[in-house]
Write a structure and sequence with these properties.
The chain has six helices and seven strands. By secondary structure, it is an alpha+beta fold. It is globular, with a radius of gyration of 17 Å.
Amino acid sequence: MTKFYLAIPVLLLAACGIPKNSPQNTADQNKAKVLGDSGVTISREAESSDQRDLTVNVGDKTIDISYGDDGYKTFDSHGATLNDEDKAALKKAADAFAQANQLSEASPADDQITYKILDYLSYAPANYTFESERYNRGLSLTNDGITCIKKNTTVKAEWSTQAAGYVSENILVGTNWPSGYGCMGRCGSDCGGWLPSSWTKDCMDHDACSYRNSASGGASDRNCGDEFNEAADDWTFGVIRGCRG
């Protein structure tokens, strides 16, 4: 089973230095844009010096997202869930956005974040509803915020299950486990996706929990759902925080 993560950050992002838009750039971003032939449209707006708004329209669904230096403020699909057709369209949209903006490590943080959100949405589990309240939690035993890890080092993966309670295992970062679990500790599916990638402790925790428990369904999994949510912030903001492995 391939590993996935959702990216709903709730922790401090002061180190990200999210750039403020000039008036002209802001006006350009406010316009709804169709991304390639995906049928997905996005509009971006700077509400204030510390808040960015992103609206994603796919099919008949609208997802409203706002974020700033202190993390995600809202992430709301208004009760709608994404089907396989929606997710395929979002993946095409993410690729079209990356190509149109020639994304690289030097790209503006807002562009990288927009891409990561589109990419994340394309991996959403079936019947998953995006609700901000689901992720408004502090640090816990296994939630390490955005904690970078380095490839070829050993970290202690930690998770909990209903049957076994707290579990830990020392794992080499970047090692390839079978059945789609390559690049252990990388945020995202296996070793693929747009580079650079985030490599973090919470993503390692979910990788290990998911593999050892044959998890599925992301946040709805009875054993690894909490680790799934705790890895959320790492997906979108890990690279900007310097967690490049």
